[in-house]
């Protein structure tokens, strides 16, 4: 169900799973600067991917799709982070290292949100804002189905994950509460939390995030 686009070559292979409504350019941001092969996933109803089938927006179903991509490492942003958490709960040894950026949900239901909220939080050059708003028009079903869901029913299901897990959270982002980032990092035996004092760290701290990811995946 997902489209994959590889960048680079060789090992390690890093799976990159984007957030809800991400444009193709946004989806590639976390992969920038990483060595080896970066496999950027495009979920249904994003970019050039076909529209999602009815009932698709479920963390378990998305996790199953991500699980079809062979990789040594993984990065997930927001929705992609939640799906990776679900995947790790059933395959704890799947990846050697994992980074979870702006997790929105762990074991407590995600609060309702609207596509208008996502659009209102979009900032940047006018061309990017227009592209982002256009991308969101395909995601009405996701906005209806994701609230009330959890990434895992019980955070203790992550206790068997021995891989280092870097969690990058935001301060002041209403859609990605810092408490969720803290709880996510605490759920992993080798979890590490980095809270960035910004409501939009992927914009304001892009260079710092890139450097931190390169360092983290280098071990």
Automatic annotation (TrEMBL):
InterPro entries, per database record: AB_hydrolase_fold
Domain of life: Bacteria
Gene3D superfamilies registered for this protein in UniProt: alpha/beta hydrolase
Name of the molecule in the record: Pimeloyl-ACP methyl ester carboxylesterase
Gene source species: Lentzea pudingi
Lineage: Bacteria, Bacillati, Actinomycetota, Actinomycetes, Pseudonocardiales
